Here is the input.
Amino acid sequence: MTRVHVRRATLSLLVAAGLAGFVVFGARDARACGGCFTPPEETESVITDEKMVLSVSMTQTTLYDQIEYSGSPASFAWVLPIKGTVKVGLSADILFQTIEQLTATVVIQPPTNCPPPPSCNSGFGYPSENAGAGTASAEDAGAKSAVTVTAQAQVGPYETVQLHSTDGSALNNWLTAHGYQIPASTKPVIDAYVTDGFDFLALKLIPGAGVQAMQPVRVTSQGAAPSLPLHMVAVGTGATTGITIWVVADGRWQPKNFPTFTITDPEIAWDWVTSSSNYESLRLSKEAGFGGRGWQIESSLELNQYTISQTLEQAIQYGSSSVGGYTAPIPPPAVDGGASDAGAIDGGDGTEDAGVDGGLAAAEADLAVLFAGISQPSVRFTRMRSDVAKSALSVDMALEASTDQSELTNQHNPGQQIGQPECPVYNSSCEVTGSVPRSQAQAAAAAGSPGGGGCTTSRPPSESGTTAGVLVALAGIGIVRARKKRRAAK
Here is the structure.
């Protein structure tokens, strides 16, 4: 069986009345918002990390889901619980990279400069010398009488089929008949979604398409649906699964049925020895305090739609070909020697380079879906993160508008410092009497203490000479004027 290298793809999923996850079959080292089922000949897959962008408005809701997959292309497929008939389109990994770039959490290293020395007796202060800044066919047998195909289409390199059933066993039999290996332990999960009234979208790579052709997918339906399918995520995960979610909306959102927390600047410590902060350990500690159920609200930023569009456009125009940009689908060759409208598959990839102009047009269409129903020029991006324990993935996540609609910055200035540089301490005569940590020296200087710190007591020779020259000149002028007055008196 052919093996391929890891390929990253982005899947966008929208369900009306409730978003549900998707099941990844035959994947290894995968990132996926859904269960990971593996054929017997494949090594078992474990989902370790997941990134999703959920756009919520009153008109529609869209979930973009980024995954990684390696294995046989013939084994690759997604099964996504949905509600009603959905619209399937294409997206690109570069969209995730753009959002990541604009919202990444930054811990700012404290500046390395010391405060300037005090004025002392001369009344002049000088700056420090070292101051700085710092596919399945609808006609196939196998429970088809109990499973209805509601839609079927090719989208880029994928064959897609939408299924409806009120019988979980019939749906499991349908999937098994179409080559999906469903573990016995997973069938109750599918049964539960069927019982809750969900339909399913199944995706496979078209025959002849390799994993390198995996184009991100966008699935859209109408209505607001602020929910995430964590129950399905539990299939194929290990002890914990790292999940990052961006909620794109008119305001700030948060989980409704999971605890949340934030990390504030006073909690963050910067270690000068390692040139790093304790931000990550703080996050993990707080997650542990919630038993693997807690979600960190990392940031909530107002971003202008134009800024996002321009950043994505520049990435397409000037980025390397390896960034995962937009591609144009090439339909497979016509059957029985008939003519094909758009050519054949290029090298079995199922896609071709869209080019800069094609990429820009595709990006514009993708952003129109992402921002659909959001009328304001500025959009709120709320970023959430958790390393979710498998035991916490027994229920889907419900989202709600936060009672706190203020922005939450993604940039942090550490409130504590470990092993920080020392600054000199001066007395009232500008003599160095010792040294203290930089933060203490800065605090003393801000309070106007005569013992405030600085990094040097020496004055630049050129400046000292200039000052002395000015004083001598003023004295000379005074002497001349005094002599003139005495002469006038005589």
Q: What stands out?
A: The two ends are 119 Å apart (CA to CA).
